[in-house]
Design a protein that fits this description.
Layout lengths: L1 H24 L2 H12 L2 H15 L3 H17 L7 H22 L4 H21 L6 E6 L4 E5 L18 E6 L1
Antiparallel strand pairs: 1-2, 1-3
């Protein structure tokens, strides 16, 4: 009986020791840091998709507002918090994305907004590809506009022509 109790206490001690060691290896600060790093570009992508939706609806005013939000999210990115691959691409595309967002936000001409959106989409594509998104992103192409855009849905909704040619285009790449 005495040996059984000693054995049980030894097993309990070992189990608690292993749990303590494991808990010490995974620190809450590390988890929080990982979440912060992975979410650095999320507002940029979210604002891009919101602007795309406004272009699909041919709503120049909302497109301008969403571009201003994109500009804010671009300036809020802390470069030192990005992963290495993201940082490399970010340094390459950030200035172009900033200029494109400024152009789109500063005018109500839908044609000019859509033309600038081509460049913005190209740079956002490079950035999202480097960021390994958690959700599936579809790269779609419109032959009439000779331009790509990013979408969270597989169904084509063309931001370059809106309702006049809503389904013009096709998926050319899938990023998972």
């Amino acid at each position: 009986m005495k040996n059984s109790i000693i054995t049980i206490l030894t097993v309990i001690t070992i189990v608690f020791s292993v749990n303590t060691i494991t808990a010490n290896k995974i620190k809450p600060e590390t988890i929080i840091k990982d979440i912060q790093e992975s979410s650095q570009l999320k507002p940029v992508f979210d604002n891009y998709f919101a602007m795309k939706e406004a272009l699909i609806k041919s709503d120049a005013k909302t497109t301008s507002v969403k571009a201003a939000s994109l500009l804010t999210s671009i300036s809020a990115v802390k470069t030192d918090k990005l992963k290495s691959a993201e940082r490399t691409v970010w340094m390459k595309v950030m200035k172009k994305m900033t200029v494109d967002a400024k152009v789109i936000s500063s005018n109500q001409d839908l044609k000019k907004q859509r033309e600038t959106f081509k460049s913005l989409s190209k740079n956002t594509y490079e950035l999202i590809k480097a960021s390994n998104p958690t959700e599936t992103i579809y790269i779609q192409y419109c032959p009439m506009a000779d331009a790509n855009w990013l979408s969270k849905e597989k169904a084509v909704k063309n931001p370059y022509y809106g309702s006049s040619m809503l389904t013009c285009g096709n998926v050319i790449e899938t990023i998972k």
